[in-house]
Amino acid sequence: MELSSPELIRELIATYGNANKVQRRPASRDRRVHCKCGHCRQCLDDLRWERIFTEKFADPDYYTRSVMHIASPLTSI
């Protein structure tokens, strides 16, 4: 089954450049720099949400509680 002619494919590749080449944005554009001053509106809002998250979801015993080891009963055989 032929979807298109080889000539058409060659023409499209020549028109649009190398089909294997992937264009990516520079990493510097993808990363946003966040202010850490603690006084501006964004910093105060971030601190507020961090406090809310800590009060509601943070588990103070997460790193100190013992780990439960579960094993198959067949391991003793």
Question: Would you kindly provide a written description of the structure presented here, covering whatever features stand out?
Answer:
With 77 residues, the chain is an all-alpha fold. It has a domain at 27-56. The protein is built from three helices and no strands.
List keywords for this structure.
3 helices; mainly alpha; 77 residues
Task: Give the topology.
Layout: H1 6-16, H2 27-30, H3 41-57
Helical fraction = 40-55%
Q: Would you tell me the structural class of the helices and strands?
A: mainly alpha
- Averaging pLDDT over every residue, what do you get? 79
- From the N-terminal CA to the C-terminal CA, the straight-line distance is 58 Å
Largest sheet: none
Task: Please give a quick description of this structure.
By secondary structure, this protein is mainly α. Helix content is 42%, strand content 0%.
